[in-house]
Write a structure and sequence with these properties.
The protein contains two helices and two strands; from the N terminus they run ββαα. The protein has 73 residues and is mostly helical.
Length: 73
């Protein structure tokens, strides 16, 4: 039986190619968490003044990724 790696961010096993966490540039995470980190970095660097409503818009962007992650379980 093959043991799948576990993502340290979401604690779920993943079988696809890992992403490199943007937090420390060495930790391997699942691709869904990698996309969420990338989108968050983009939001944080391109928003003129990060706001709660802007963060709510960000959460709408990552909702499909979170749904995909839940379906994979």
């Amino acid at each position: 039986m093959v043991r799948l790696p576990v993502c340290p961010r979401c604690n779920h096993e993943y079988a696809d190619f890992p992403a490199l966490s943007r937090v420390d540039n060495r930790t391997e995470i699942c691709s869904a968490c990698g996309r969420i980190e990338a989108l968050y970095d983009y939001y944080a660097s391109h928003a003129r003044k990060p706001t709660l409503s802007g963060f709510a818009d960000f959460l709408k962007l990552v909702q499909p990724i979170a749904t995909q992650l839940e379906k994979a379980l």
